[in-house]
Amino acid sequence: MIFTNNLTKSYGNLTALDNLNLEVKEGEIYCLLGANGAGKTTTINLLLGFMKPTSGNAFINQLDVVEHSKQTKQYLAYIPENLMLYPSLNAIENLDYFSGIANKNFNKKTLESILTEAGLQASAFYKPVSKYSKGMRQKVGVAIALAKDAKVLLLDEPTSGLDPKASFEFGRLLQKLRQKGVATLMATHDLFRAKEVATTIGIMKDGQLKQQWSVDDITLSDLEKNYLETMSYNTIEL
Ligand SMILES: Nc1ncnc2c1ncn2[C@@H]1O[C@H](COP(=O)(O)OP(=O)(O)OP(=O)(O)O)[C@@H](O)[C@H]1O
């Protein structure tokens, strides 16, 4: 579903992403860890087609995202750290609007059931989203992905700033999407949540994928140890 082949992005002399090769298959959740500036957002932006790679390729559902930008966007849903919704509109209206953009039109009852599936409490459906917590807004983001029937979900630090319960609930939602076959790539600083939800975990540094494990092959404490060792290497270099 998601595949990159020597994906590289440079800004002048800086190589923000350096020959990234990764694959996320149907029903997999790949968590990308790495310090600030490691290249996680660059990876997501390239997959979204927000910018072009300097070299290499990114594929969504076997289609090159540069050559087939319109088609690949149809398969994608994206939830950034701070999801942009229309603040004065309620969840039903936002979902209706964003589903419409994806050429999906639902009646009110179906919109309500999608929001319920995304874990939003019914009492919030008709309140303006400006009154929502971050966790509630993220649930609307998941509802948009469900409404769109997205095959690929790209998440950039979706749990940052969420309290543990909201973060747990968000993880449960990702598992639900996984069961539907969605391929998820999540950039995160949250090692604990990564270990909870991922099928595969990778650590990036300086634009390079340094290490990668199947989640069952690493304990949380070993993940933390490896992460810190990978990052502290930077300190030694300095
Ligand atoms: N538009 C840009 N112009 C120049 N340099 C950029 C640009 N965007 C990103 N960079 C640089 O590319 C590198 C990778 O940035 P990126 O945002 O992908 O990191 P990240 O892993 O997502 O970090 P964070 O955890 O802080 O979000 C950084 O050194 C960053 O400063």
UniProtKB/TrEMBL annotation:
Pfam family, one: ABC_tran
Stretches assigned to the ABC transporter domain: 2-231
Biological source species: Flavivirga amylovorans
Keyword Transport applies: yes
Record keyword Transport present: yes
UniProt name for this protein: ABC transporter ATP-binding protein
Taxonomic classification: Bacteria, Pseudomonadati, Bacteroidota, Flavobacteriia, Flavobacteriales
Gene Ontology MF terms: ATP binding
Keywords: ATP-binding, Nucleotide-binding, Transport
